[in-house]
Amino acid sequence: MAYVRVGAARSISLWTLILGCFDIAGLTPASSVTAESLDMVKVSAVSGGDATLPCDTRSPQPADVLLLVVWYKDDVPIYSYDGRVKGPTAHWADDVLAGRARWLSTAPSSLRIRDIIATDRALYRCRVDFKISPTKNHKIILDVIELPEKPKIYDDLDKEIVGVAGPYREDTNLKLTCVVSGGRPMPRLRWWRDEKLVATLEPLEDGTRISMLELNIPKLTRDFYEAVYTCTADNTLLVPPLRVNVQIQLYLRPLLVEILAREQPLSVGQTAELTCRAVGARPPAMITWWLDSSQLAKEAIQKDSDDRNETVSVLRWTPQMGHNGHTLTCRAAHTILDHTTIETSMSLNLHYVPIVKLRLGSKLNPNDIEEGDDVYFECVVEANPPAYKVVWEHNGQIMAHNQRAGVIAGPAHLALQSVAKEQSGRYSCTASNVEGDGRSSPFNLQVIYKPVCKNQHTMVVGAAINEPASVKCDVDAFPPPKNFQWTLNNSMGTVDIEPSKFTVDNIGRSVLTYTATTESDYGSLTCRATNMAGQQMDPCRYTLLPAVKPDQPFNCTTLNLTDDSAELRCVAGYDGGLHTTYIVEVWETGNLIANVSSSVPVWKLDDLGSGKALKLYFYAHNARGRSDITKLRVHTLSRLALHTEAKTTEVQIDRNWLLAAIAVAVCVLVATISLALWARRRQHRPMQYEAPIQTVKAYKGSLHSTHHSPLQPDDKNPDVVPLGKDFHCTHDIERPPEPPPYGAVVSPPVGVSRSAHSLQHDVRSNTPHTPNTPASDAQSIGTLADDRRSVTSGTLSRRREVVTTRTPLLANARESCV
């Protein structure tokens, strides 16, 4: 089978060659196979691509049959197709095609050649033979286009640029060359920027097979930063142009630098954040901070934006008072470009707490200010923002403007008219602004004044015969006096005491050592001091008496007594003219448990014990002896009582509101009861009872007969059973006046009270004039006598009963206490 296929292929090739010989020899076959005129068709194909050579195999006659298709390259058979053979053997190809060609019989029929090479460029003829129709020939010129190599870009130093060109300095020129090798026909070169054509080089056949196109930029400005240029090469429309991109990088100087404004002002001593922004530098600028000509510490934090177009520097800085008015500068510099540093500055207007200085009036001598002089101060304030308030102080106390008192206080000056010694002391002024309060250093004002005795009362000094006694003369003066004069006045006259008998210290005090030798040496002492302001006007006075033992303390009381401590105080008696000590002794059941002395009759005793009954003995003692004793008994509180009292107090405090509410409720209740009683009195106002004359006489006779009654006087009240002399019926106070005794109207007076049975009998009686029987009266008397005996024997308890009775003349019920 393989052999047959080979023979058939050889027969087809032979037949093709024979037909070709006939055509070459110019032999013309019969009229049925006459050749048609040929039209030239041009087909272009890219080297390495595919080419489709068209060949129309349709017969003019519908019933005709395709016999053979033969392809010629430059009149050399290279491919054939036999329509009479089925299967792959119908195709034949020359070795020059090397399996790259394939006949496509479907309309439109064509020869497809793959992987076109340069040698495929030629004149092709397609011969078509039919069974009936004459042979048809088609001529195709195949133009093979050879693509150029990918473009390459070189700088002015003939260095190939890949991707990025530069960076170049701003304002310099730029030259780029696009080089393309090969290509048939010669390619066209073009430069583009952002799809915009910049330069073009048309194809030029110069035999070098190299095409070059230059790009020249005379001055690189900021507009060229990161600009992308593209070089393209093309010599056919069948494929897209070959291209290569390059990006221009530049060094850019900073365009802007500024210190961002702050919402809050800068304050002295407070750390603040300052922000400086630089824009436009490539690479990002380096920011530095300067105070005048000195660079600040490199503590600023620098950060670049995402697009690296903006740089921010944050400086944390604590300004000081000496920085106020100086210049703070922010500089943005390029790390590569020279002479590109730009800067911005701000004058420091710092806010600070007022700086205050207090000055005495320029015409005043601080060492020569006497009572009665006028003194004025000046408060010098330096503050930003300005102070809104100035306050003057004297010894820490705020001074108010008081012109009547001679104090004139203003925001900048203080005047003291007719200054007194009490106005000596420390003066200061305080100024306030939004930053705080500034206080001046205190100025100590010393007013010169004459000596004044510290103790204005006449002091009693006790001195024993032939024993020295010390007398102290204390005066208040400025400056302290250095000269003192002592004078003794007695029955012998007035005598100045010699200076050798007294001393003067540096604090303005003189101590006289005086010894009385006779009774005539006692009398009155005076002391006068003299300083720069003059001599003391009113001397210090002393009464010199013989020294005796002190009087006893009196009016001794406890000020604060607890479970184990006590505070005691007495009134001191005459001290005998000598230094006296006051003593208290504490005794418990014959044991001394405390002995406390004091220079004044005030003591505080501790650790006495709780619940103790103590005896206290008070007395005074001086060099002449001990006084009599004053006694006092006290009981310290027990711890339980103290705790109960504290707890009761706490509960009472906690229940204040409850007690107040109860008090209000009681008041309302009392008011309600008062109103009810008042209404009842008006309702039961007593009637004017009238009785016949005979009845009245009978009543008088009954009164006379009561003296012979065997009952006691208390038993003659018909409504009350007496319970005791100290019992009082509360209803008697509120009851209206009683009507006449019903005994005078109803029955002969018997002077006795009815029993319960007789009362019930009267109530049930239809006639109010039913007389009482003697039996019932006797029964009532017996009952009362029994009750009285019970009371006398103590078996009957004290109580009240309300008994309702009805009389013939009184229809309303009455209440009695029983």
From TrEMBL:
Transmembrane region(s): 657-679
Biased amino acid composition, Polar residues:
765-782
Region Disordered: start-end pairs:
701-722, 750-803
Q: What is the protein name stated in its UniProt record?
A: Nephrin-like
Q: Where in the cell is it found?
A: Membrane
Q: Which GO terms describe its cellular component?
A: membrane
Which keywords does UniProt give here?
A: Disulfide bond, Membrane, Signal, Transmembrane, Transmembrane helix
Recorded topology in the membrane: Single-pass membrane protein
Q: Which organism is it from?
A: Bombyx mandarina
- Cite the InterPro entries for this sequence: CD80_C2-set (IPR013162), FN3_dom (IPR003961), FN3_sf (IPR036116), Ig-like_dom (IPR007110), Ig-like_dom_sf (IPR036179), Ig-like_fold (IPR013783), Ig_sub (IPR003599), Ig_sub2 (IPR003598)
Recorded name of the encoding gene: LOC114239698
Domain Ig-like residue range list: 29-128, 151-247, 254-349, 354-446, 451-543
